[in-house]
Amino acid sequence: MLRATYNLVAWLAQPLLRRKLLRRAQAEPGYGQHVNERFGQYEVARPDGDGPLVWIHAVSLGETRAAAILLTALRERVPGMRLLLTNGTATGRAEGEKLLRPGDLQVWQPWDERGAVRRFFAHFRPDMGVLMETEIWPNLLFESSEQGIPVALANARLSEKSLRAAERGAWLMRPAYGALAAAWAQTEDDAKRLRAIGANRVSVLGNLKFDAQPDHALIARGRAWRAAASKPVVMLASSREGEEAEFLKNLGQAPVQWLIVPRHPQRFDEVAELVRAHGLSLSRRSSWGEADTPSSADVWLGDSLGEMAAYYSLADVALLGGSFEPLGGQNLIEAAACGCPVLMGPHTFNFHEAAHLAENAGAAKRVPDISAALSAARYLVGDVAANAAMRDAGLAFAAEHRGAAVHMADAVALLLSEK
After folding, report:
1. For residue 206, is it left (φ>0), alpha (ψ between -120 and 50) or beta?
2. Count of Cβ atoms closer than 10 Å to residue 310 Cβ
3. Gap between the Cα atoms of 258 and 236, Å rounded
4. Half-sphere exposure for 343 (CA within 13 Å, toward CB)
5. Which residues contact 47 (CB under 8 A, 6 or more apart)?
6. Which of 21, 94, 350, 388 has its CA 20 to 30 Å from the CA of residue 86?
C-alpha cells in the first residue's frame, strides 16, 4: 500500500517536473534538451555490439568525474564494453559527454516513476548497472531486481544524517537498498551504515576521487596566474549560498588577493552582484581574455567550469565551501592533490572520513566559522614554512589513498561474470 502511494505521487509529480525543467532551462539551456528522455521516451536506439552494455548513473558533476575514473579502469578490465551513461544535471551531462566513445550512449536519468523506469529498461536492456555514491532510486532498483539486472552502488557513502532520513522512510528505503546487488563503500563507517539500512554484499573499496590525477595543463595555468599575482591568494572554493556574504563581510584589511569560485554556475552573476554590493572591485575569469591573465581587482570570481585544478594551483589557501553552512562540505581531495592547504568549517558530514583523514595528515585544519578561517588564512599566507608543510602533507595524503578504481573495476567484472 505504501509503495503504491509512492508510485502515485511519482506519477502525479511529472507535470511539476516538466515545469521545473522549463524554469531551470532559462538559466541552463541543457535542462531544456531531450526532456522526454526523463520520462522513458527515447529517440536513440540501444547501442549495437558484442560487448556487455554497462549502465552507469552519475547525477551531477562530481559524481560524473568519479565515474570517469572508474570507467578508465573498467575499459581496461572489460575490453569491448559499451557504456550507457545517465545523468541528472546539465553540468553532469556536459561533463559526461566527454567520456563517450563509439558504441557508447548518453541519456537523462529516468524519473523514478514506474512506467518511465520500465520503458528505460525495456529500451536499453543493460547487462548491469552502477549507481554512483548516493543515488538510491526505489523504482529503478525494484525494476532492475525484477528483471535480473544486477545494480551496484559504487564509491558509496552514507552519512549519519542520510541514514536517519532513510530510517524514517524505512518502509521504502530498506527494500530499495536491499535490491542492490552490491555496495562498494568508501569507508568502514559508510559500510556499517549501508548494512544497517539493508544493503547486501557490502565491501570497503576506497574513494575513487583519490585516483583522480589533476590535469597538468590546468596546474601550469594556475601557477602562471599565481606568478602574475602581486599578493598571496586566498580562495573560497566551491562556495554555496550564504557563504559568500559571510566571507565578504569578514575580509577586513589585508595584503591578500581574494578569489571566490561558486559551486553552481547559475549563481555566478548573483555572486558578482554581491561582491559589487560590498563596494569591492571585481574581475571575472571569463573576462581575462586570450591573454589568460588576471585583471587587477579586490576580488577575482572563478566563473568557469572544469578549472578547479587551476584555481587550487593558484591559491595559497582554500576555504572549503559547503562546510560553513550546514550543507555537508565539498570534496577536498582535489585540493590536496594540487598541494593547496585547506581550511574547513564545522559541517563536513558528506565527506566525513576524507575530512578527518586530511586533518590528521596535516593537509587541512578545522575552524568554527568563516571569520576564524580568514584569520587562519592570513596567518598561513604569512608563514612560508607552515604553508609549505600543509602543501606537502596534502600531496602525500592524496597519494597514500589511491587504488580504488582498480578494485571497483574488478568488482564490476565479477558481477558481470555472475549474471
Report:
1. left
2. 26
3. 8
4. 25
5. 53, 82, 84, 103, 104, 105
6. 350
Q: Alpha helices, DSSP H only, in 229-369?
A: 243-249, 268-277, 308-314, 333-337, 352-361
Amino acid identity, position 369: D
Of the residues 63, 133, 143, 334, only one is catalytic, namely 63
Cell numbers given for 414: 565479477
| β-sheet with 299-301: strand ranges across | 282-284, 299-301, 257-262, 233-239, 317-320, 342-344, 364-366
What integer pLDDT is reported at residue 291 of this predicted model?
60
User: Phi and psi for 30 in degrees, rounded to 5?
Assistant: -55, -30
**Dihedrals φ, ψ of 82, to 5°?**
-115, 145
Instruction: Using the Cα atoms of residue 413, residue 352, residue 158 and residue 371 in order, give the sign of their dihedral.
Output: negative
Helix ranges restricted to H, 302-403: 308-314, 333-337, 352-361, 370-382, 384-400
Helix (H, G, I), strand (E, B) or coil at 306: coil
Q: What is the mean pLDDT of residues 337-361?
A: 94
Q: Can 400 be counted among the known catalytic residues? A: no
Residue 65: closest CA among 213, 188, 180:
213
Torsion of CA 89, 86, 410, 402, to 10 degrees: -20
Which pLDDT tens digit goes with each residue over 44-100? 988 777 889 999 999 998 899 999 999 999 999 999 999 999 999 999 999 999 999
Return the ∠ at Cα 55 (arms to 49 and 61), rounded to 5°.
125
Q: Who's near 143: CB < 8 A, 6+ residues apart? A: 114, 117, 118, 121
Measured distance CA(101)–CA(68) in Å, rounded? 12
